[in-house]
Amino acid sequence: MDSDTVRLLADTNPLPETIDARLRQQLSFLIEVDRLKTVLRQSPLAAVDRRENDAEHSWHLALMVVILAEHADEEIDVGRTVELVLVHDLVEIYAGDTPLYDVEMGVDQAEREVVAAEALFGLLPADQATRLRARWDEFEARRTPEARFAKAMDRLEPLLLNWMARGGTWRTPGVTADDVRARKAVIGDASASLWAAGRELIDEGERRGWSRPGRGVSTG
C-alpha cells in the first residue's frame, strides 16, 4: 500500500489553499491519523463491555510511561519514550492490528507495517517524516532503553486489561498460560519489578482458571 492508493480523509473536504503549505500538510496528516480511532484491538476495556481501539491504547501507554517510568531498570528520557508509544501503532491505520496470539497474521506483519510506515509518515513534511519514521524504527528495534521500556508498556497494558476481564485474550483458542508468559516476558527487558508484577498477574489468573494451564503453576 502507498498513499496514492488511499483517498486521504482531508481530500474529502480539502483545507483552504490560503493556509500555509507546510501547516496544511501537517493538518492533513493529523486528520488522517483520526483513522486510528477506528482500528479495533482484541483487548477488552476495563470500564465498559467493548474492545479497545488503537488510539485508546496509545493514550494509555503514554500515561503509563509517565506514571511507571520510575520502575525502569535503565534511565530513560520520558518525553522520548512517550513519543515512541504514541507513534508505534500509527502504521496499523493502513496495516491493521495483528493480534498477539495470531501466528498466521504475524507471518507478514513486518512487511505490511513497513509499507504502511512509508505511506503514512510520507504524508508529513520531509523533516518530520524522517523524525517520526526514526521513532517508529527505534521502537521496533528495541535497541535503546526508551524503546525497551516503550515495548514493555505495550505488553503490560493489555495484560492489565485481560486481568480486569478475568482472562480476555488469554482465553484465545490454543493459547496457554505459558504462551502468555512467553509473549509478555519482554517486559523484563526493561523492568524487573514490572515483570515480577506481570508474572504474578499471569500466575494468579492461571490459578483462577482464566487461562489454560501451563507447566509452571499449580492450580490446585
Short description:
The protein is mainly alpha-helical and 220 residues long. It has 10 helices and 2 strands. A hairpin with a 6-residue loop joins strand 1 and strand 2.
What does this structure look like?
The structure is a single chain. The chain is built from ten helices and two strands. It has helices spanning 21-32, 54-68, 78-87, 92-95, 103-106, 109-121, 126-141, 145-164, 177-184, 192-207, and strands spanning 40-44, 51-53. The protein has a two-stranded antiparallel sheet with strand order 1-2. β1 (40-44) and β2 (51-53) form a beta hairpin. The radius of gyration is 19 Å and the shape is globular.
Please name the defining characteristics of this protein.
220 residues, HD_domain, single chain, hydrolase, mainly alpha, 2 strands, 54% helix, HD/PDEase_dom, YfbR/HDDC2
Strand percent estimate: under 5%
Mean pLDDT: 94
The total count of helices amounts to 10
Tally of extended strands?
2
* Helix-residue proportion: 40-55%
Give the strand line-up of the largest sheet: 1-2
Itemize the secondary structure elements and their pairings:
Blueprint: H1 21-32, E1 40-44, E2 51-53, H2 54-68, H3 78-87, H4 92-95, H5 103-106, H6 109-121, H7 126-141, H8 145-164, H9 177-184, H10 192-207
Antiparallel strand pairs: 1-2
InterPro entries: HD/PDEase_dom, HD_domain, YfbR/HDDC2
Catalytic activity: a 2'-deoxyribonucleoside 5'-phosphate + H2O = a 2'-deoxyribonucleoside + phosphate
Subunit structure: Homodimer.
